[in-house]
Design goal:
- The protein is of the alpha+beta class.
- The protein has one domain.
- It contains two helices and two strands, in the order ααββ.
- It has a two-stranded antiparallel sheet.
- Helix 1 crosses helix 2.
- It starts with a helix and ends with a strand.
């Protein structure tokens, strides 16, 4: 799920300075730090990673 997220959403930033492994590591760390969370939309049956508020 995280790999799909970074390949889908990271390209929007236009920043190619990170490797795939680096991007995944950043997202994993943000999940551990509770800066982001996984949300699941029942209607569309899709999951996404979003910033916690």
């Amino acid at each position: 799920m995280i790999q799909e997220f970074v390949t889908r959403d990271w390209s929007d930033f236009g920043d190619d300075s990170y490797t795939m492994e680096g991007k995944i590591a950043q997202v994993l760390q943000q999940l551990r730090d509770k800066k982001v969370k996984v949300v699941f939309d029942l209607k569309s049956q899709t999951a996404n990673i979003v910033v916690r508020r």
